[in-house]
Amino acid sequence: MDNLVTSVWEQVRLLVFDLDGTLVDSKRDLALSVNAMRKEMGLAPLALELVSSCVGHGVTLLVRRSLGSQATDENVEKGLAFFLDYYRQHMLDNTTPYPGVSEALEKLKGRKMAVLTNKPVNFSREMISRLGFAPYFSYVYGGNSFPQKKPDPAGLHKLMEDLQVSARETVMVGDSDTDILTGKNAGVLTCGVTYGFGAQTLENVSPDLIIDDMRELPPLLNGHRKI
Questions:
Q1: Helices (H) and strands (E) in the chain, counts
Q2: ∠ CA(110), CA(111), CA(112), 5° rounding?
Q3: Predicted TM-score (pTM) above 0.90
Q4: 3-class SS at 115?
Q5: What are phi and psi of 116, to 5 degrees?
Q6: 196 — phi, psi (to 5°)?
């Protein structure tokens, strides 16, 4: 990358992160909660990877997809109520930050940071707080914070307005095409991480930057690394 393009990244003042698959590995707890719901409804468990492929578009769609052919409106409503209650109690049984996330956030704390996820906002804020990440983030918005979920850009637009930061000074960081499309729809820089649930979808949307570890971000934004 030449100096002109590198300087674009050095201008970043706001980093907006996805949560599941980007900051935290919540795959097992989500799958166990889905399968507890399916058991409650007399259905067989699903493979962890299959559940993971349904994550990222909001909890209602996760439940609907997880119920498959049994996803009547009545069953989705019943399944959603059970899932939310169960997941609230078990969402941090196995969930941990991905390697390098804590170190990266500490090195990035001089910049404005926020979380924009399709996970329900109360769950998201509780998870971030209990993991000790709350001090890093000015705002946490979830899938029920706005009328439309990601990839609609409403959440990013609101964050830029909240924090008085322009699109050219903002980057959306996430593991899936949903996150990258959100960034593109808002006209901001985009960064894909290769270790999350939706990494296989990144090649379809061409992020401005792809990293394998969150620790790659601070030196890039601080001008200590060329790519």
A1: 10, 8
A2: 130
A3: yes
A4: strand
A5: -130, 110
A6: -90, -175
Q: Which of 30, 31, 57 is nearest to 45 (CA)?
A: 31
Which residues 6+ apart lie within 8 Å of 185 measured at CB?
Answer: 151, 152, 153, 156
- The tokens for 73 are 């409106």
Kindly name the residue from 2, 18, 20, 73 that is annotated as catalytic. Answer: 18
**Which residues, in sequence order, are CB contacts of 193 under 8 Å at separation 6+?**
21, 22, 173, 174, 175, 199, 210, 211, 212, 214
Q: Which two tokens stand for residue 96?
A: 């941990």
Per-residue pLDDT of the chain (227 residues; tens, 9 = 90+): 444 456 789 999 999 999 999 999 999 999 999 999 999 999 999 998 899 888 878 899 999 999 999 999 999 999 999 999 999 999 999 999 999 999 999 999 999 999 999 999 999 999 999 999 999 999 999 999 999 999 999 999 999 999 999 999 999 999 999 999 999 999 999 999 999 999 999 999 999 999 999 999 999 998 765 55
Q: Which backbone phi and psi does 128 adopt, to 5 degrees?
A: -65, -40
Q: What share of the chain is helix, strand, coil (3-state, %, to 5)?
A: 50, 15, 35
* 150: nearest Cα among 46, 21, 51: 21
Q: Is residue 162 annotated as a catalytic residue, yes or no?
A: no
